[in-house]
Write a structure and sequence with these properties.
Strand content: over 45%
Shape: globular
Structural class: mainly beta
Oligomer: single chain
Distance between the termini: 40 Å
Largest sheet: 7 strands, mixed
Order of helices and strands: EEEEEEEEEEE
Number of helices: 0
Length: about 130
């Protein structure tokens, strides 16, 4: 059964950095796009970043993280990363990685994704 497991979350001061990892198993995720979302209590899940499957990976970011976050993937390790720099308190959330069942037409929409990890907490203190 396909499974996504996030790691790398934690507590960091504003301006600091964290790198999240998403290890995939049970499926060849290298053939599929991958995404990162985040959610804070009481709010809807929010798109953060996505990356296409191809070697020349196309990347997508929500405006609030452009220039600070970088999504990447290592297909040999079936792992996707989210490097987060210059973190702000408003980045505090549970971060989830996700993968679609097939082709991804709208990387920004959570409804395009079928597989989800359990989430990892990121807390940025001011």
């Amino acid at each position: 059964q396909a499974q996504l497991v996030e790691s790398g979350g934690g507590l960091v001061q504003a301006g600091g950095s964290l790198r999240l990892s998403c290890a995939a198993s049970g499926r060849t995720f290298s053939n599929y796009a991958m995404g990162w979302f985040r959610q804070t209590q009481g709010k809807e899940r929010e798109f953060v970043a996505a990356i296409s499957w191809s070697g020349r990976s196309s990347t997508y970011y929500t405006d609030s993280v452009k220039g600070r976050f970088t999504i990447s993937r290592d297909n040999a390790k079936n792992t996707v990363y989210l490097q987060m720099n210059s973190l702000k308190p408003e980045d505090t959330a549970v971060y989830y990685c996700a993968a679609p069942l097939g082709s991804l037409y709208d990387p920004f929409s959570e409804f395009e994704y079928h597989y989800w990890g359990q989430g990892t907490q990121v807390t940025v203190s001011s």
